[in-house]
Design goal:
Helices cover 27% and strands 21% of the residues. An 8-stranded antiparallel β-sheet has the order 1-6-7-8-2-3-4-5. Strands 14-15-18-19-17-16 form a 6-stranded antiparallel barrel. It is globular. The relative contact order is 0.10.
Length: 753
């Protein structure tokens, strides 16, 4: 049957400026009410009054608020990816940090009018940015100075000197510097150019600080080279901790004010010579090698990311957690990182020792629970991550705006040498939190440990926004037997359409299981991932059965810029065996110019709603219980391996997951992920071989599916079964079959690769 799909049923991406910039007439203003999707955690749509002027879209509750300057938000249309869906009269604007979903439901005529105006304003704004590229980075559209921008368009500069002076005025537009700066006397053109270079460098430095506040996964940042500056003068902000960053901000603020005062007074001699010296001193005084940091803060210093990381993470595979609906204007919440790291042996604990922990439980060569000799585990991957600069993501994704990417084929360059089943195993890296919970008498404190374990599952995603895990094929399995950690883990891909992964983990102190599938959409610059399914944990010591949901994830800057990951939403944890207490954990959505990035807040309440315990922290760093500054560290993420930025951002636990030990190999079923050839080739740095094997494995899966359909058969998972409530549970047969008669003696396994 041939089905004709109307173009109005799909998303259409709006093209931008073509050709060289030139003189484009300013388009007419457009204003009126539109529906806007409400910000998280609220659902649905509400009506907002929008004003589109000079390529900037502002909105408020009503026209009166807009005229009074009471803005709820401001969007630079020129810097956004715009897509429309005619059938539903929907308009999506994907800005750098947020996705704005708009609708005009009254009439098709009004919708077409808004789309037309947005097209014109977007091209106009892009032309403006192309003509004055420096100004794009120096101010936000919501803080534009009308006088400065109007004068830039209207004034015909009589000399390069006047242009330089105007650029200096624009540089300090946020400081309300008057355009009358062009009358500064006794300044040569070369002096002014040097001033402009230094001030531009400072502004880019301050802009980099904004990025660091928004995402501490930003790379080491070095300002553009200018006269008198060498590589030794670069300030590596990515390596700075909380206290060092405060010192950077203070030094930059002093430098900024001094330079501004001297510029206004016309002292260009100071500006040319001393400005460069002061900027050098600012950088040197805030060197990351500074030894004045308190010991407690050193553990929370952020790692620098590698700028050559892979170009894309496909959200379909696994939650790298975050959101894309925008934050409207709200007060900034300050985050206090310098809490006490004192640890009580009774109520708190830390993971000091980091990567050495994998050998601390049992010595090398000791026998695991399955009778297999456990060798010393590897500490690095066989080959570093290859460059993906040759992959054009836009060509792959431009026709998939607003669509689910689970069926979109991606080149192997974008993968990491782990798959989704192994990613699920990474969630139990900090299983010792559940061990502690099973030996804690207080039910409220037990809930704190369980909630912290749920938060720790996201820690491994912090450095992983640059690549995606492999998709498991139907019937693929993975086991992880870790006697040093006291657990045995199995996972299986139980469904292909929709893709569902199920896992089960046994320990003397807990049982952990879940089945997960993901819905995802690409919005032009961001990837939104919504996981579905429930996570379960039981503690045999008290008969507790805990359940919780996963939060939404978003990966920002998919196509360009520093890619970063965000987790947002509300996680509700309940004990189905008792209503004595419950817990709510909020993954706070990041706000620009604030330190709320990666922040979590949680409360444990009794049956009457009274708060018994509170905790806070950052999902990639640690969790603290109580109030600052006397809060106790409940959990801290393990230190990252050396050169982790060159090895996909894997944790030490992640490095070990795909290792195929010679002693273990005979005991694994042929469907185990470790035998997957495309993943193994990528791990060894053989990109061509990985791509060839990936296509071959995908072809085998399609052929198996075709055979099942022709024979009117359905796939039956080997080690999991479906329960009455449509969840997947372990059939408790894996370890029995593994022991007797062993998987090597069975011949009924499908040929997956």
């Amino acid at each position: 049957v041939c089905v004709r799909v109307s173009l109005s049923d799909s998303w259409e991406i709006i093209e931008g400026l073509k050709g060289n910039p030139g003189n484009i007439q300013e388009p007419e203003k457009q204003e009126g009410f539109l529906l806007k999707r409400r910000k998280w955690p609220m659902k649905g749509w509400h009506k907002r009054y929008f004003l589109l002027e000079k390529g900037i879209l502002k909105y408020s509750k009503c026209r009166a608020d807009l005229r009074k300057g009471k803005l709820h938000g401001c969007i630079d249309v020129g810097l956004s990816v715009m897509s429309i869906k005619k059938k539903t009269k929907a308009i999506d604007l994907d800005a750098n940090n947020n996705i704005y979903h708009l609708k005009e439901v009254k009439s098709q005529e009004l919708f077409d009018d808004w789309v037309s105006k947005l097209r014109h304003h977007r091209v106009f704004r892009q032309n403006e940015i192309a003509m004055y590229p420096h100004e794009r980075h120096l101010f936000h559209p919501s803080h534009l100075s009308p006088n400065l921008n109007d004068s830039m368009r209207q004034v015909h500069f009589s000399s390069d000197r006047d242009m330089s002076l105007y650029r200096l005025a624009l540089t300090f537009s946020n400081s309300r510097l008057s355009p009358s700066l062009i009358h500064v006397p006794h300044c040569s053109l070369s002096d002014l150019k040097d001033c402009e270079s230094y001030l531009l460098e400072l502004n880019l430095l301050l802009k980099s600080m904004e990025v660091l506040h928004r995402t501490s996964s930003a790379p080491a940042i070095s300002p553009p080279s200018s006269a008198g500056h060498g590589p030794q003068d670069r300030l590596w902000l990515g390596e700075l901790g909380v206290f060092e960053r405060e010192r950077v901000c203070g030094a930059c603020d002093v430098f900024h004010n001094t330079a501004r005062v001297n510029l206004i007074s016309g002292d260009c001699l100071y500006t040319k010579h001393d400005m460069g010296t002061d900027l050098k001193l600012c950088c040197q005084s805030t060197s990351p090698t500074n030894q004045g940091l308190p010991d407690g803060s050193r553990q929370l210093v952020h790692q620098a990311s590698n700028e050559s990381m892979s170009e894309f993470f496909d959200a379909q595979e696994y939650q790298l957690t975050s959101s894309s609906s925008e934050n409207e204007a709200s007060d900034d919440d300050s985050y206090i990182s310098d809490v006490s790291d004192s640890v009580s042996m009774d109520t708190g604990y830390s993971n000091e020792g980091g990567s050495e922990r994998h050998d601390s439980g049992m010595p090398c060569g000791c026998s695991g629970g399955s009778g297999v000799q456990v060798a010393c585990r590897r500490t690095t991957l066989p080959s570093p991550q290859p460059s993906s600069s040759s992959v054009s993501l836009w060509n792959i994704l431009k026709n998939n705006i607003g669509k689910d990417l689970s069926k979109v084929a991606m080149p192997v360059h974008l993968n990491e040498p782990l798959n989704t089943l192994q990613r699920l195993c990474e969630e139990v890296e900090y299983s010792e939190l559940l061990d502690t919970a099973n030996h804690t008498q207080d039910p409220y404190q037990r809930m704190v440990y369980v909630a912290t374990f749920a938060v720790s599952a996201y820690a491994s995603s912090y450095h992983r926004a640059g690549s995606k895990p492999f998709n498991p094929v139907l019937g693929e399995t993975y086991e992880c037997d870790r006697p040093d950690k006291g657990f045995r883990f199995i996972a299986e891909q139980v469904s292909h359409h929709p893709p569902v992964s199920a896992c089960h983990c046994d320990s003397h102190n807990f049982t952990f299981w879940q089945d997960v599938q993901w819905k995802n959409k690409f919005w032009g610059k961001s990837m939104e991932i919504v996981p579905m399914g429930t996570t379960h944990v039981t503690l045999p010591g008290f008969g507790d059965h805990y359940e919780w949901n996963k939060v939404t994830s978003c990966i920002h800057n998919i196509l360009s810029g520093q890619r970063w990951i965000e987790h947002y939403g509300e996680m509700s944890i309940k004990n189905t065996s008792s209503d004595a207490c419950q817990c709510t954990v909020t993954f706070v959505k990041a706000k620009s110019w604030s330190s709320t990035v990666n922040k979590i807040e949680g409360v444990v309440t009794d049956s009457g709603g009274r708060v018994i315990h509170s905790f806070f922290g950052k999902w990639h760093e640690g969790v603290y219980q109580g109030d600052t500054p006397s809060a106790i560290c409940i959990w801290r993420a393990n230190p990252m391996p050396v050169d982790q930025d060159q090895y996909y951002g894997f944790t030490q636990f992640g490095v070990e997951l795909n290792e195929l030990d010679a002693a273990l190999k005979p005991f694994l079923p042929p469907t185990d992920t470790r035998f997957r050839l495309d993943q193994r080739c990528l791990e060894e740095g053989n990109i061509e071989g990985a791509e060839e094997q990936k296509q071959r494995i995908e072809l085998l899966q399609r052929e198996r599916r075709k055979v099942l359909e022709e024979n009117n058969m359905t796939h039956k998972p080997r080690f999991f079964k479906k329960s009455k409530d449509d969840t997947w549970l372990s059939s408790n047969t894996y370890w029995e079959q593994r022991k007797d008669p062993g998987f090597s003696s069975r011949e009924d396994f499908p040929v997956l690769w």
